[in-house]
């Protein structure tokens, strides 16, 4: 058991150092969501919402628990807030000229506002087949954009 924990921590550290900050934890015998939450620096409720777990008392061996680092969530949110602010400034400037935002500009602003709300609500989807929430790859790309600014 100790060997497995050390090995997991090694892979967790390696995944945190890489440029892609999303990680996946494979449930092992004896794991609980509480233990996984402690290892991933998330709360149990965050893991439940991010993974759409229906029964938190029932997780299966080899089940994949996906989580995104809090640094990435914060960076993605800041990036989206910057985009919303730039749209607001653009609207003010265009308003002074008697113009209005284009349909595409309005859609972009709604998208970024929606992404901020999804991050706040932890409505993050990990599959393209899911219908609600923002896909984690989008969040990661926003986090990378914020870090590289």
Largest sheet: 2 strands, antiparallel
Whole-Å distance between the termini? Answer: 43 Å
Low-confidence stretches: 2-21
Instruction: Identify the strand order in the major beta sheet.
Output: 1-2
Structural class designation: mainly alpha
Global outline = elongated
Q: Strand-and-helix sequence, N→C?
A: HEHHEHHEEH
Number of domains: 2
| Total DSSP helices | 6
Summarize the structure in words.
By secondary structure, this protein is mainly alpha-helical. 60% of the residues lie in helices and 9% in strands. The protein has two domains: 2-68, LysM domain (Membrane-bound Lytic Murein Transglycosylase D, Chain A, Roll); 71-147, no CATH class. It has six helices and four strands; from the N terminus they run αβααβααββα. The strands form two sheets. It has a two-stranded antiparallel sheet with strand order 1-2. It is elongated, with a radius of gyration of 19 Å. Residues 2-21 have low confidence and may be disordered.
Which terms summarize this structure?
6 helices; mainly alpha; disordered N terminus; 4 strands; 149 residues; Membrane-bound Lytic Murein Transglycosylase D, Chain A
